[in-house]
Amino acid sequence: MDRFAKIHPAFHFVFFISVFVLSVTVVNPVFCAVSLVGAVLYIGISRGREVLSCLKFVLAIIVVVGIFNMLFSGYGVTELFKIAHKRFTLEALAYGINQGVMLGATVLWFDAFSHTVDSERVVYLLSFAPKTALIFSMVLGFIPRFKTKARDIREARLGLNGGAAEMNIVQKLKSGIHDFGALVTYSMESSIVTSNSMRSRGYNPSAVRASRYKLKSRDIVLIAVCFLISAYVLYSKASRKNLFIFEPEIGFLSLDYFAIAFFALLCALPSVIDLTEVVKWKISALKM
């Protein structure tokens, strides 16, 4: 049971914005690792074995970014090896790995956001701008539809070719262009059909909408916690209390343990909320 996904949309908005901003702005391997672990824990608790595919994707990101940064950057003093006149250093590799972890954590949090915040919640959050809310919610709905349609187009083309897949890069490129053209045509036709359907049903963006979301005291407390944690971590960064350098040598210049603890609490909030609900259900089951 994903209790976190059922909390008020305002908290979701504040939480994900806080995690995104702090994960990207604080360039520190400890913060990047904490953000990644928090995202993995939440996905693992809420969606089970699906987290394994996410971990494979994140690992690929970390390896690719780390190796590319080492290949194209030569800063640092710890030389790993040398080819001709090109130096490959530990500092460049470590910085690339750190950026890969940060990118992987951000991708996982975006994935969690897409599974938590649906179109109804987006419309509620952007109720002050109904046209923008409509466009955003439609985009969220079109993405999975287009992914499914792209797979259908590819399978249909393979069926016409007797099931034979492309053998070389040129054939793959031509097939990809044809599939993309068919998908663009489908998207334009789908948007026209949707527009005509909404017009015929009398859609009015200024109409009053009923909402099933009600802001409770628990939601206000959680929002306040997110704001306070974000404010302290950003203050810690601005005060240079969390400094980590990759050049010329790897090391901490300063480390704020309170900022790390608060950020870990922020990243663990979804998992804690879900686990708390699981514990409550098990306790209630034992009492029966």
Rg (C-alpha, Å): 24 Å
What is the number of E strands?
Answer: 4
- Overall form: globular
The percentage helix is over 70%
- Distance between termini? 20 Å
Largest sheet: 2 strands, antiparallel
- Order of SSEs: HHHEEHHHHHEEH
Task: Write a brief caption for the model.
This protein is 73% helix and 6% strand.
Question: What does this entry look like structurally?
Answer:
With 288 residues, the chain is mostly helical. Helices cover 73% and strands 6% of the residues. It is built from nine helices and four strands; from the N terminus they run αααββαααααββα. The protein has helices at 9-25, 29-47, 50-72, 90-116, 119-125, 130-160, 169-200, 217-238, 257-287; strands at 79-83, 86-89, 243-245, 251-254. The strands form two sheets. A two-stranded antiparallel ribbon has the order 1-2. The chain has a two-stranded antiparallel ribbon with strand order 3-4. The longest helix is centred in the middle third of the chain and has 32 residues, at 169-200. The radius of gyration is 24 Å and the shape is globular. The model has no long low-confidence stretch (mean pLDDT 81).
